[in-house]
């Protein structure tokens, strides 16, 4: 039966453990080096702890080694991969094809979205050279995903939630060009989140100080069923720079969504074990996000970016009705709490905010004097009560076991069977002593055997198979139960099976010529492509910077958002080329209408 996977991010060990406990089927986490989020590095020791814990629930752990590598990195990267394999990690997420030329352990390889996986031809190539899974580009529609699925049989993973890079992943060179911080080396300077003026060919300012490249955050929670039908088997949450509370909330939100989906689509199953009980109602509006968009999953539409601010607005509360001397009256003020964070766009269209001191009779009393106008929409970007719930014991994940206590010739046996039907039995040599009160004795035995509170198990049922009732000291019952659980833990650890690495091979690459966008930055990646039939290679931008070439490639189109697209039959279009200006940095916008793409170039 095909399995569905919920894949959650982990900035660190704390976040990884939170993801497991809140229902993740798999975790992805960065190692000490070579991850595409340089601020989210982790030691082998921490990944080892996470892996051992996750595997108890059959939750998988994937390590990101998805930056491009230089020649000087190769030996260290290869050693790191072996270290990762030796602690039991399930798969490696990579961008650099030079890794396939290394002396690798038999670890499964996933092709990162950084390797620009947008076409069936590219995905089929990755399948043929030995990848177990491909992480698809975020820009794909349901139809494009279905077309890739129809032409391949590799596992397909897709992002469903979190921040969006405006450029195709792995195809952004603006940080490297402007300040020698390579996005492909985990050092993105986030030029897409900066404010820009938009100018036309005559120098007229069409938009002033707007975040014209800053996309809203992805939320495809309404499309999970359609994505599953199109061929996606792993639903990925972005967020390796997010804190543990974000991971808890968003993982719980999608866990509940996917569990409902599994009830509807019973020909699919969950890919890990255990059931999670939540002690809060997950709500993505209460965690960091720049409003929400479904991006291109159903096709192009307007409103995918947030020009006012690149920051988190949170959940919309309502309009300000009246501003008093030291208070504000607003719609829905009664749902706010003391200590909440409120934000809004001021009269200059800048995001600002305040902390709530107290709420009285529907009035909001800020800690400080606030300059806000009636009819301003306010948002809550920090929910004090919700954060308190997340900081407490917000979820528990347990695996059901069946417990059978039976009489034997020499004493008794205690058998425990888990959700995988793994069974262990503790043989107990014990002199039998009849109980004075049969009902009480059996009740005590059953109750004590079911007390699994400090373990990851919960007793689904307890079965007593004895000819008569016997008396047992409670301390002895507890000792037997503890011993049996320890045996089960050891047996389950021994029987865990990692994904099988596919054999590596060479296949004909779909193109004969590769330019800087192939991100070839070391001798092994060049060798790999040559063995795959590529005849002409350019070095990657980080190795040999190009001039007068696009630094961003994006499906986001400013002309379309402004209503100036040729397909919209727009009138009064400004003369081109159009330019973005930030301080003294000037960028030209070019539009590839055949591909429905926008390119950003630096003006020298």
Tell me about this structure.
This protein is globular. The strands form five sheets. The protein has an eight-stranded parallel β-barrel, surrounded by five helices. It has a six-stranded antiparallel beta sheet with strand order 9-8-28-29-30-27, with no helix packed on it. The longest helix is centred in the last third of the chain and has 22 residues, at 474-495. The chain has 13 helices and 30 strands. The protein starts with a strand and ends with a strand. Helix 1 packs parallel to helix 8 (244-264) and helix 5 (142-151) runs parallel beside helix 7 (224-230). With 604 residues, the protein is α/β, with parallel strands linked by helices. The model has no long low-confidence stretch (mean pLDDT 95). Among the domains are: 3-164 and 216-272, TIM Barrel, CATH 3.20.20.380; 313-391, Beta Barrel (Thrombin, subunit H); 398-495, no CATH class. The protein is 24% helix and 27% strand.
Structural descriptors:
six-stranded antiparallel beta sheet; TIM Barrel; 30 strands; alpha/beta; 13 helices; 604 residues; Thrombin, subunit H
